[in-house]
């Protein structure tokens, strides 16, 4: 009888079951990750509701763990050994396209899970594709040779390293895409885990003024934003966000707008365009699914000479910088690490991130061995 792996499987829309899957035979070109922490993100909330595209699947795409079994070829090729603590990117790139050579796996055709049903992406791939261990809500995850690993720096616990995904998004969107730097004025919309990581990245980069918006429900999160270095916070339900931004920037508007909202429709984009300074601002937006945008004010955008960019994942370099940033312990990370759950509570963990489970959730982790 083969060894078993306990996993939480999504078996239908918003439905999870605990199952025991077979531990696969390990070829020389593969490795096995013993999952310590699998972060739950906003994408999980929206994906969880959708019907399955194939068989059941193990969700969980923000994974940290110890290399438990490492094939010889895998070890030689990746420069890793059993016992190493690593952060696993959710992309499984082809390894030889123009994007992979510069660490931009999110653009690799092989990772285009949205368009290609054969593409493997951790946390999104059906157990139909052998060996099925493609998600972190499981005791083990299977690593083929094209898995992308980052060694976790010393001094960082697995749970802290579990913030690597939102932190790398924060660095990617604020610094690399948004261009936040010394003395920049920044408007960050949405104080969830991504927004809070944008606050840390902007503060670390020397931003002059960081303004964070949220709703009345976000009161606690806005406090955390302040603890991470936000200069001003705005409750958009109680205050007129636009006039407050102009007040806080002496009538100039901001250099950079970072949209970190989820499910807020077109309002954040419209606010961002108006809050941007008169000329040459950059706005990084979230394009949600098939959302339509009638009467998009492209004329305003043009008149302001604004640059519009898309927030979509992160590069290899952003992850390296994120791990470095987290390991510095410059910010009180514990304030955003609000909840951990075992495999039996994956459903509740996802609901909590969606605001319908445990109250006060910011960053939620699944610990498969809890
Ligand atoms: Zn995610
Ligand atoms: Zn590629």
Break the fold down into its secondary structure elements and pairings.
Layout: E1 4-12, E2 15-22, E3 31-40, H1 42-49, E4 57-58, E5 62-70, H2 72-78, E6 85-88, E7 140-143, E8 149-151, H3 158-161, H4 164-177, E9 185-189, H5 193-204, E10 209-214, H6 219-227, E11 232-235, H7 241-248, E12 256-259, H8 267-275, E13 282-285, H9 298-303, E14 307-310, H10 316-327, E15 337-341, H11 346-353, E16 363-366
This protein binds zinc ion (ZN) (2 copies).
The site of one zinc ion has 5 residues, from loops.
Low-confidence stretches: none
Ligand catalogue: zinc ion
Beta strand %: 15-25%
Rg from C-alpha positions?
21 Å
> In one word, what is the shape?
globular
Give me the secondary-structure category. Answer: alpha/beta
Give me the count of strands. 16
Q: What is the share of helical residues? A: 25-40%
* Mean pLDDT across all amino acids: 95
Number of helices, counting only DSSP H or I runs of 4 residues or more: 11
Distance between the termini: 25 Å
The largest pleated sheet is described as: 7 strands, mixed
What order do the helices and strands follow?
Answer: EEEHEEHEEEHHEHEHEHEHEHEHEHE
């Amino acid at each position: 009888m083969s060894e078993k792996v306990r996993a939480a499987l999504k078996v239908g829309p918003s439905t999870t079951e605990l199952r025991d899957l077979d531990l696969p035979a390990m070829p020389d070109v593969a490795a096995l990750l013993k999952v310590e922490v699998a972060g739950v993100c906003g994408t999980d909330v929206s994906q969880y509701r959708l019907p399955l595209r194939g068989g059941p699947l193990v969700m969980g795409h923000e994974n940290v763990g110890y290399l438990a079994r490492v094939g010889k070829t895998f070890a030689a090729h990746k420069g890793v050994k059993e016992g190493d603590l690593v952060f696993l990117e959710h992309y499984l790139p082809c390894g030889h396209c123009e994007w992979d050579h510069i660490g931009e796996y999110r653009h690799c055709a092989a990772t285009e899970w949205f368009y290609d049903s054969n593409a493997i992406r951790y946390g999104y791939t059906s157990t139909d594709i052998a060996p099925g261990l493609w998600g972190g809500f499981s005791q083990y995850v299977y690593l083929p040779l094209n898995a992308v690993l980052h060694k976790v720096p010393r001094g960082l616990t697995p749970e802290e390293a579990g913030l690597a995904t939102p932190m790398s998004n924060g660095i990617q969107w604020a610094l690399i895409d948004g261009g936040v730097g010394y003395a920049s004025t920044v408007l960050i919309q949405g104080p969830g885990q991504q927004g809070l990581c944008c606050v840390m990245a902007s503060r670390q980069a020397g931003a002059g003024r960081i303004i964070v918006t949220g709703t009345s429900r976000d009161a606690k999160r806005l406090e955390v934003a302040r603890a991470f270095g936000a200069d001003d916070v705005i409750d958009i339900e109680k205050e007129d966000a636009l006039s407050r931004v102009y007040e806080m920037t002496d009538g100039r508007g901001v250099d950079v707008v970072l949209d970190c909202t989820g499910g807020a429709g077109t309002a954040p984009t419209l606010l961002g365009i108006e809050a941007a300074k008169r000329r040459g601002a950059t706005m990084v937006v979230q394009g949600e699914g098939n959302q339509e945008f009638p009467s998009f004010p492209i004329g305003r955008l043009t008149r302001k000479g604004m640059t519009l960019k898309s927030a979509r994942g992160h590069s290899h370099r952003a992850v390296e910088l994120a791990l470095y940033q987290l390991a510095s312990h410059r910010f009180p990370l514990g304030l955003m690490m609000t909840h951990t759950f075992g495999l039996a509570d994956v459903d509740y963990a996802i609901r909590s991130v969606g605001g319908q489970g445990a109250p006060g959730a910011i960053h939620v982790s699944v610990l498969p061995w809890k």
